[in-house]
Specification:
alpha/beta; 10% strand; 6 strands; 11 helices; 6-stranded mixed sheet; 262 residues
């Protein structure tokens, strides 16, 4: 059984590791404050109308060490343009595919609806824009069917660089990219987020679950609401997903009108 000195040494090393990963923090807290409430407490410099988002741990994630002061650099970004410039030089956002272009996202930086996909594909990498291939054309058609244009919304991805052979993002890649996406969400401050595909849904919700179990409901997400549906690429491969996707986006439009107004 470890003695008291060994326990203190372990605790000290753990706290130091947390400081290195997430910056300095205080261990003082109100006895009535739950861990979840404390995690989302608002920092002094926040300029967002909604609750600031603290990156959570993705299930089955290996331990990753962020670049020194990366969290503070991300927090210091006050506009999407500033965040984009930071992303351009962020090596941790890159995959193991060489010479890829940053795909930061596109659309209305003040949108009330934000769509989050998995990762850029070949066409997106070439043009530096999200959802511009066949999946993008289908997404445009889906949005048009419920009365949205690209100019009204903002579209981004979990990853901001293309992975090799368009494979799914790894857990480590998602963990490295997540703080940048969360700050992007804070700055845009949408009322609704639509995740297209299982990967963005499980990444943002921080839990591993089947897509069918995440559908047809609005999940609370840091003062906002989040919905999950099928990725347009899945619809191109399997037409049977078109009807449930249509049901999902109709729910999304109705909720949008309730929150924002038609």
């Amino acid at each position: 059984m470890p003695d008291s000195k060994d326990i203190i040494d372990r605790a000290t090393r753990f706290i130091q590791q947390q400081r290195e990963m997430y910056g300095d923090f205080s261990t003082a807290f109100e006895a009535s404050t739950s861990p979840e409430e404390k995690k989302f407490s608002e920092p002094e410099n926040s300029n967002s109308g909604s609750t600031p988002i603290t990156p959570g741990k993705i299930e089955n994630s290996p331990k990753t060490e962020p670049m020194p002061d990366a969290a503070q650099l991300i927090a210091n970004c006050k506009t999407c343009d500033e965040l984009k410039k930071l992303c351009e030089n962020a090596e941790e956002l890159r995959t193991d595919l060489a010479n890829t272009n940053l795909v930061f996202g596109g659309g209305n930086p003040n949108a009330d609806l934000m769509i989050v996909g998995e990762a850029p594909g070949a066409k997106e990498d070439e043009l530096g824009l999200p959802f511009v291939g066949r999946s993008g054309k289908l997404l445009d058609d889906i949005l048009k069917a419920i009365g949205f244009s690209r100019e009204e919304i903002f579209i981004s991805n979990i990853l901001k660089h293309r992975p090799p052979e368009n494979r799914n993002p790894t857990t480590e890649e998602r963990q490295r990219s997540l703080p940048y996406l969360l700050r992007q969400i804070e700055l845009i401050d949408p009322k609704l987020i639509l995740c297209v595909g299982k990967v963005p849904g499980t990444t943002l919700l921080g839990k591993e679950e089947a897509l069918k179990n995440m559908r047809q409901k609005f999940h609370p997400f840091h003062g906002r609401e989040l919905m999950v549906t099928y990725h347009p690429a899945a619809l191109l491969r399997n037409p049977h997903f078109k009807r449930p996707t249509w049901e999902d986006v109709q729910m999304l439009r109705k909720r949008y009108d309730e929150l924002v107004g038609s």
